[in-house]
Amino acid sequence: MVQATSPSFTREDWQKGYQSLRTEQSYWIDEIEGEIPSELQGTLFRNGPGLLDVNGQAYGHPFDGDGMICAIAFTQGKAHFANSFVKTPEFLAEQKEGRILYRGVFGTQKPGGWWQNLFDLKLKNIANTNVIYHGKRLLALWEASLPYRLDPKTLDTLGVETFNGTLAAGKAFTAHPRLDPETGDLWAFGVEAGPKSTITIYKIDPQGELTESCSQKVSGFCFLHDFAYTPNYRIFLQNPVAFNTLPFILGLKTAGACIDLKPNTPTKILLFDRSGKLTTLETDPGFVFHHCNAFEQGDEIILDSVCYQDYPKLEPNVDYKNVNFDTVVPGKLCRYRIDLRTGSVSREILLDRSCEFPTIHPRCVGQPYRYAYIGAIAQPTGNAPLQAILKIDLATGKQEAHSFAPRGFIGEPVFVPRNASTTSVEDDGWIITLIFNAERDRSDVVILDAQNIAAAPVATLHLKHHVPYGLHGNFTPEIWH
Questions:
Q1: Is 291 labelled a binding residue?
Q2: Which phi and psi angles does 366 have, rounded to 5°?
Q3: Ligand-binding site membership of 472 (annotated)
Q4: 106 to 185, 314, 326, 352, 445: CA distances (angstroms)
Q5: Is 481 annotated as ligand-binding?
Q6: Which one, of 144, 149, 110, 112, lies nearest residue 126 by Cα?
Q7: Whole-number average pLDDT of the chain
Q8: pLDDT digits (tens, 9 = 90+) for 67-102
Q9: DSSP string spanning 323-386?
Q10: Which residues form a coiled coil (predicted)?
């Protein structure tokens, strides 16, 4: 008889992390366990939905929440916290009216039923998915529209970023750019989705100027959240999804609810070379939000991605805080081997455990690498909220874990190198993440030793409040506070 495993969390604890944070704050963190390493100098910027309701009217999905930037600045063994909402015109309008005025992509309709949403195709730029500091610009990113620029010191919203007019109004700019560690160029993309979709690839130089762009039409609807980068290729997995526009136009469903995975339909691999030439290959069906890394190896491209067997959307009329984790499709870290000579593609599972938010040493982007760090459930099987961080040795298969269960819930891990030199050991650095601590109803900034993540944290910084579950962020060695 197989003995049932006790849950690693309680739903009540997990739900607490989905409360809005309504205040903007700025303070030195004075409650610290352990010691902040003196070599840790710079700023961790994080983005995610800070408001999950408007005056008590709840958004239907957390991904529709208003973007809020957090900045944790480390200097001389101390740390400073600040947060600010990205004050888009839509955010300001809803705050002034005290009610939901716009439809959300994933689960939010305007109150009043389908009649109030009929033919309303305007989507609110929530600027809530990622934040990156590049070329002296701090940019809040949401993949369906233009970036918003903020002052890195005050976090004040400065307005949309058009890169001196090279990005036109209505254009999309990815929430997942990739930084070339060799050149310092930032590579990004935008998608105009439809029966035939247009993918535009952008290059932003180290000074923050958009210097190159090229566009290519591809057949089919493109739902692309992320891409992978190598020196010679920009790699996309075109998820085999269909978009039924009619319920969205008629106000019956949100855009995200109108997307479904096509059964028994291969995933397309889109390979753009340096000149923009497109090669299309096919692989096993599945759905991918995030890629871990890619690199070239002889005549092969190795691509590591978190793959789902189905599109993990919220079912209609289901409160996301009451989702049944037993029915949620788990993501698993997979490796694709793409043979450029034959066009054949194979796939294997690297981590057979529900996981998301992979990260690596930033110097390894597009290069061969050994170590990956990823958020995972606390138990080896089943599904649940992410409560652990795993380190995977891709050379040996060895796995190490740091679990925050039963009352801690993780955010995306970020790797910060101890030494910016390219000669440093690949795992010599820290993993920094925000943890929601349900026991204290507050969030912690946790610093782990990347070479020994199973050990006790190097430091745990207790914030004065909670931070709602976030999405993505990046570290810069520049200190802003």
A1: no
A2: 80, 5
A3: yes
A4: 32, 8, 21, 27, 29
A5: no
A6: 144
A7: 94
A8: 999 999 999 999 999 999 999 999 999 999 999 999
A9: --GGGSPPPEEEEEEEETTT--EEEEEEE-S-EEEEE--GGGTTS--SEEEEEE-SSSSS----
A10: none
Structural Rg of the chain based on CA atoms: 21
Q: Where in 66-182 does DSSP place strands (E)?
A: 66-75, 78-85, 130-134, 137-141, 148-150, 157-160, 178-179
Query: How does DSSP classify residue 253?
Result: S
User: What SS3 class is residue 479?
Assistant: coil
Domains and CATH numbers, the chain: 11-476 (2.130.10.10)
**Would you say 465 is a known binding-site residue?**
no
pLDDT for 118 beyond 80: yes
Whole-number pLDDT of residue 313:
78
Helix or strand (DSSP H, E) at 305: strand 300-308
Residues 406 and 9: beta-carbon distance below 8 Å: yes
Average pLDDT over residues 324-336: 93
User: Do the beta carbons of residue 17 and residue 409 sit within 8 Å?
Assistant: yes
Give yes or no for residue 423 having a pLDDT over 70. no
The residue that leads in pLDDT, 437 or 324, is: 437
